[in-house]
Amino acid sequence: MHGIKKWFGTFQAVDDVTLEIRSNEFFTLLGPSGCGKTTLLRMIAGFELPTEGQVLLDGTDISRLLPNQRPVNTVFQNYALFPHLTVAENIGFGLKMLGKPKSEIDSVVKDMLKLVHLEGRGNNPVTQLSGGQQQRVALARALAPRPKVLLLDEPLSALDLKLRKSMQMELKRLQLETGITFVFVTHDQEEALTMSDRIAVMSTGTVRQVGSPWDIYDRPAERFVADFIGETNFLEADVVSVSGDRARVRLSSGAEISATYPDGVTPKGKVTIVVRPEHARLGPPGSGVLEGVLDDIVYLGTDNHFHVKVDGGGTFIVRQQNAKSGPCGFSEQERVSIAINDDVAQILRD
Amino acid sequence: MTLSAQDATEQRQKKHVRDRWLLSAPALILIIAASVGPLLIVVLYSFLAPGSYGDVKWEFSTEGWFNVLFTRDIFDDTVSLADAHFSIFWRSIKLAFATTVFCLIFGFPTAYFIATRAPHNRSLWLFLITIPFWTNMLIRTFAIQEVIRSEGIINTLLMKIGIISAPIQMMFTDFAIMLGMTYVFLPLMVLPLYASLEKLDFRLIEAGYDLYASRFGVLWRIIIPLVKPGIIAGSILVFVPALSSYVVPRVLGGGKNLMVGNLIELQFGQGRNWPLGAALSVTLVIIVLFAMLYYVRNASKSGGSAHG
Ligand SMILES: Nc1ncnc2c1ncn2[C@@H]1O[C@H](COP(=O)(O)OP(=O)(O)O)[C@@H](O)[C@H]1O
Ligand SMILES: [Mg+2]
Minimum-distance ligand to the CA of A76? Predict the structure, then answer.
C-alpha cells in the first residue's frame, strides 16, 4: 500500500499509510479502537476507495477495482454468514459466483469442512451453529476461493476467552497450511504478539511502527507503541556517547547503561528510554543502577510486581518470576537497588 | 406424583386454557362479527332464491350457483356455459396478476431506495409514499383519468411536441385499468417491502460482493431470498384487492372492461339477482384462497431449493 489517505467528509480516518505486506505472511494491524484499522482493511477489500494513494497487489494497482474483482476475501467481524443458506452453500458461494463447476465446488467445500473441523455439518443451516462454529464457517467461506489475501477484521472479538485462545492457534495453523497471506486486525496486543509474523501498530490513522512481535515489544520506536503494548518503565536519560547500534546513556542516578535506538534516529541530548519490568532485577542497595524504596509488592502467582519509588522521582516496576515457592525475600518500605539487564533498554524517537 | 397434586396441575392447566380464551375473546368477537359473520351471510344468500325487486326469497335454491357456471336461454331454456363469467374472472386474474408484477417492479427499487437512506430521512420518504392514501381512491382514479384520457395531459403533450398526430386511446383499455391499479396499490407493496429491506443486514451484501457476486448475483441470491417475506406480504396485499377491484375498472375501464367486482355489483344492482351476486362473491373468495395457498406454498418451497 502506498501513501494511502482516506477522508470521511472533513474527518481524516487514514493519514498517509505506506505498508508492504509480504506474501504468505501473517500480518497484523494493531491499534486502539477508532484508529482506522477497519477503514484500511476495507480499502484493501474494495469497500472503500482511498481518497489518495494506491493499493498494489503483486505490483498491479487494484485500488479502483470493485470488491468482486479483487482476489481478496474478508472474514467479517460479525461473520456476515448468509442466513438463508446452509453451511455448505455458504462455503461454496464464492466459487459458485466465480462460475466453477458443481463437482469442483463440492470437492472444495468438502476439503474446507475438513480443514475447519466441521465435517458432516454441511447441510446444517448456519443459524443453528454456535459462535465458534459460525466463525469457522466464515473462515472456510473466505478461504474456499483461495484468495491471494485473506482479510480478518477482529474475527475473534465475539468469542469467549477460551474459544478465542484455541481459535488463535487454529488461525495460525490455517495460515501455515494454506500459505495464504493473512491481514489480521485486532486491538488486542496479546493476540497480535501470539499470532503475527509482523505487526503494524496504528494510532489515529497513521502507522507508528512495523516489525516482528519481538521488534514491537522489545524495540518499540516511540512512546505510543511502548505504552500500548505491555507494561513499560519510561526513564529520562542523557546520551553520553554513540558507537555502532548502541548508545551509552546516563540515568538520573548518574549510572550509565547501554541502550539500543530505532533506525533513523541519532541519539543525542536528553532522551526517553524504555525498560520492560521483566528486564530488571531487584537487589540490595548499591548493587544496581537505580536506588529507591520498595513501595508496593503485588503478588500475581507466577510472578511478583515490585513498585519502586526511585530516588529523584518516578516509579519503576520490576517483575520477577516466582521460580521458588516461598516469600520473595523483600519487604515493603525497604531500600532496594534496581539492576537493568544488558541490551534491554531502548531509546525512543521523540 | 400424588393424585391430588395431579388434580391440582390439571386444574391449573384448565384455568390457564380458560384464561387464554377469555383474553383472546375481544379479538375473536371482532373477527367473527366483522369477517366470518358477513361471509356466512353471503354464503347463506347464495343458496336462496332471488326476489323480484332485488333482495332474496327465503327458500332454498341452487339457482344462484347454477348461474355462476351456466346461463339459461331466455326463450327456449337451453343451458350453456356462462362464457361471460369465465372470461371476466380470467381477465380479472390476469389484470390483478399483472398489477402485482408491476407493483413489484416499481415498488422494489422504491423500497430499496428508502431503506438505504440515512435513518432520519427514511420517515420523510415513507411519509411521501403514504400521501396518496390521504385522498379518496375515487378521486385518485379520476386524477389518473385526467392524465391519460384523449384530451388529457399525456396526449396533449405528445401532440404538442408532434410525436403523435392523433390522441392515443388509453382510457377504457386494460392498460388503463392496470395503470390505475398499480398506482392505487403501489404503497401496499412498498410498505411491507420496506419493512423487510430495512431489517436486511447490509453487511451481507458486502459479503456477497466480496465473494465475487455481481450486482445481479447479490440481488438474486442474497437480497431477494432475504426479503422474501416482504415480497410475499406485498404481493398478497396488492393481488387480493386488485382482483376484487371495483372503482378503478369502473372509472378507467368504462362499462365494457368489467372485472369481477363490477360483475358482482351488477347482480346486486341492475341485475337484481342477489343469490347470483352472493355466489359470485363466494367464488371470488375461493379463488383468492386457492391462489394464496398456491403462492405461499410455492414461494416457501423455492426458498429452500432456489440456491442448491
Ligand atoms: N463511513 C464512515 N463515515 C464517517 N466516519 C467513519 C466511517 N467509517 C469510519 N469512520 C471513522 O473513522 C475512524 C476510524 O474508524 P475504523 O477504521 O472503523 O477504526 P477501527 O477499526 O480501528 O476501530 C473512526 O473515528 C470512525 O468514526
Ligand atoms: Mg474496526
Answer: 2
B39 and B118 share one domain: no
* φ, ψ of residue A257 in degrees (nearest 5): -135, 165
Residue A139, C-alpha cell as written in the block: 473462515
Q: Is residue A49 less than 8 Å (CB to CB) from chain B?
A: no
The CATH number for B290's domain is 1.10.3720.10
Which sequence spans correspond to the domains of chain A?
2-218, 234-347
Asked: is A234-347 a CATH 2.40.50.140 domain? The reply is: yes
The full DSSP string for B129-182 is: HHGGGGS-HHHHHHHHHHHHSTTSHHHHHHHHHTS-SS----TTSHHHHHHHHH
- Structurally, what CATH architecture does the domain formed by A2-218 represent? 3-Layer(aba) Sandwich (3.40)
What pTM, to 2 d.p., does this model score?
0.80
The β-bridge partners of A104 are none
- Which of B69, B97, B118 is a domain's end point? B69
Closest Cα partner for A220 from A180, A279, A298? A279
Structural domain total, chain B: 2
Cα A31 to middle of ligand 1, angstroms: 13
Q: Any chain B CB within 8 A of the CB of A89?
A: yes
10-residue averages of pLDDT along chain A (350 residues)? 62 80 92 90 89 85 89 91 94 94 94 90 90 92 93 88 88 91 92 93 90 92 90 89 87 87 83 91 86 88 88 87 78 88 85
